[in-house]
Amino acid sequence: MEIEAPLDGRRRIADVLLTSDAGNKMAIEVQYSGLTTAEWKERTAAYKALGITVVWIWGNIGAFAPRRTRVLDVHREILRRRMPIIWINPAHERIAWAGLEDDYPRLLPANVRRHGFWFGSLDDLELRATGLFPPGFIDARIASKTTAMRPRRPRLSRGFERKVDQIASGRAR
């Protein structure tokens, strides 16, 4: 694992770079500053061109704070690609995530495309070859090829959800 790893002749710096024993690379980008959909697409494509899987994690404060602002265009693009949106609160080692509800094991009609919002511990994230995922996430790109994938529904932390609401509204102490 490398922190602030230089890539592509130092033109790009990955916040965190993981390299497997087989040489596969995954960059984790923690995004606190504003980022347009076009910038996100360009950066994601640049990582792909280098043969690096990129995982985007959004900061819990600022422009991308969960439940603080409307769903942004960049988040809509991520959902359109059937990927989860993950926020991190590093101080409390907590995560929040959003995704299309049918990417999680729920009893919903196949045509439902609502998005849900969940909370958990940083330790709940699952490292897979295709990225970093919240618990229970079914990668639709793979699940369509494998019908046996049905992980259990993630447990939610209601107390943490209330705390996030308080922080977002400025009522936290």
Number of strands: 9
Count of individual helical segments: 4
For the record, give the distance between the C-alpha atoms at the N and C termini, rounded to a whole number: 35 Å
How is the largest sheet built, in terms of strand order?
1-2-3-4-5-6-7
Question: What spatial form do the alpha-carbon principal axes imply?
Answer: globular
As a percent range, the share of helical residues equals: 10-25%
Quaternary organisation of the protein chains = single chain
* Uncertain residue ranges: 105-114, 144-161, 163-170
Structural Rg = 16 Å
What would you call the structural class? alpha+beta
Number of domains: 1
Rounded average pLDDT: 73
Could you tell me the strand content as a percent range?
Answer: 25-35%
> Sheet with the most strands?
7 strands, mixed
Write down the secondary-structure element order.
EEEHEHEEEEEHH
Organism: Nocardioides panzhihuensis
Protein name: Competence protein CoiA nuclease-like domain-containing protein
Summary, kept brief:
Residues 2-60 form the Competence protein CoiA nuclease-like domain. The chain has 173 residues and is of the alpha+beta class. The protein has four helices and nine strands, in the order βββαβαβββββαα.
Keywords:
173 residues, 7-stranded mixed sheet, two-stranded antiparallel sheet, globular
Question: In terms of topology, how is this protein built?
Answer:
Elements: E1 2-7, E2 12-19, E3 25-31, H1 37-49, E4 52-59, H2 73-80, E5 85-89, E6 94-100, E7 115-121, E8 126-128, E9 131-133, H3 140-143, H4 158-169
Parallel strand pairs: 3-4, 4-5
Antiparallel strand pairs: 1-2, 2-3, 5-6, 6-7, 8-9
